[in-house]
Amino acid sequence: xxxxxxxxxxxxxxxxxxxxxxxxxxxxxxxxxxxxxxxxxxxxxxxxxxxxxxxxxxxxxxxxxxxxxxxxxxxxxxxxxxxxxxxxxxxxxxxxxxxxxxxxxxxxxxxxxxxxxxxxxxxxxxxxxxxxxxxxxxxxxxxxxxxxxxxxxxxxxxxxxxxxxxxxxxxxxxxxxxxxxxxxxxxxxxxxxxxxxxxxxxxxxxxxxxxxxxxxxxxxxxxxxxxxxxxxxxxxxxxxxxxxxxxxxxxxxxxxxxxxxxxxxxxxxxxxxxxxxxxxxxxxxxxxxxxxxxxxxxxxxxxxxxxxxxxxxxxxxxxxxxxxxxxxxxxxxxxxxxxxxxxxxxxxxxxxxxxxxxxxxxxxxxxxx
Length: 369
Fold this sequence. Notes:
It is built from 17 helices and seven strands. The protein is α+β, with helices and mostly antiparallel strands. The chain folds into two domains: 3-155, Alpha Horseshoe (Serine Threonine Protein Phosphatase 5, Tetratricopeptide repeat); 164-363, 3-Layer(aba) Sandwich (Aminopeptidase), CATH 3.40.630.30. A hairpin with a 3-residue loop joins strand 2 (240-247) and strand 3 (251-260). The longest helix is centred in the last third of the chain and has 19 residues, at 345-363.
């Protein structure tokens, strides 16, 4: 039986399918979302009446198609599972409705966590923050809820806490090289950073050309859905802070991003749409990112790498105080910046460990949503 035939037959016969039959078709389709979608109304009717063994088999099947970040702890509350079902299909507004109803039946930290994640992936940051905080109230040991709460608080505060040129003199930025240039970048009147959310996808697709994505070593997007999935994947990384660079009276022109590798170091990257290059926007945006990374996240060291022929990005990094570090890789040039001492073999060894840790994230960028 072909996959297409299986999908069509599932949609046509879903009213009569048992839960075991749905699980069987999921297995034959190699866990295709469309099988779940075709059986959606049927699942709503039969899941509450299923035996414990039938439920366990179905839950195991769902785990094969779901994102790992969605937790399962329904406590005999089918609306929780329906919320998770909608979440894995990217139907976040429907997931939100189910999780909200699940809360009225039996609220758990997992329900609040998943509700917060659905809000987050819908771009509703304030509501997401409230749900993650509720999850922590119900379970103070839920690490992922704590990380997401910290992320959203920091994300939302980035522009609010952006320093003026004068304020930068007394901040941690004063420990950086080229601090006078950084102060000038912070004073740029026409730029601001805001959290990168699905609403930016259309504009991002317009400027994320294959040439620019190749220079940044990011995926070459071919559809709007791929861009939206990538944005959601970044939003769902608790330690990643990706910002849209917004130009006054215009809108989206590019991206700056920092991922905290631990409590002390972070990896950054940035890119601008081709029409906006060479105007000082990249330098100004990176200056704001440095402000965020050093004074909000309280990181001590930042690093990045660029392709050897990407001279334009290299110049931006050098202007804002990054130093090149000689590491054995002919294809890439490595740079770092920090508020502490950067010299000596120990610092270089530490940097190599960070790059090794980050390399899987830099080179392997699978869209998993």
